[in-house]
Each structure stands twice: as C-alpha cells, then as structure tokens.
Amino acid sequence: MATFTENDLKELKDFILGQFKEVNSKIDKLSEEVNNLKERLENGFFQKTRFLKSIM
Known about the structure:
This protein is mainly α. The chain contains one helix and no strands. Keywords: Coiled coil.
C-alpha cells in the first residue's frame, strides 16, 4: 500500500487547485465570448427588424 508524505499531499492539493483555477479561467473567458456573440447577434437581429419595419 502506498503511503503519502505531507509534502506529497500538499503537492497534489496544489496541482488540483491549479487545475481548477485553469478550468475556471477558461470557463470565464468562454462565457464572456458567448455573451459578446449573443449581444452581437441580438443587435444585428434588431437592426434588421427595424430595417424591415421601415420598408413595409
């Protein structure tokens, strides 16, 4: 059976926390990109809707 030292456990904990931080950072960036794209799509849709109403 493997035994872990305090240092092994600390290194493992630091590694896992680092991975969580990296994933959370990527999620935040992707979420921001999605929100920006959503806003751009909504703005484009409303501009086209206004244009269509103006020519009808």
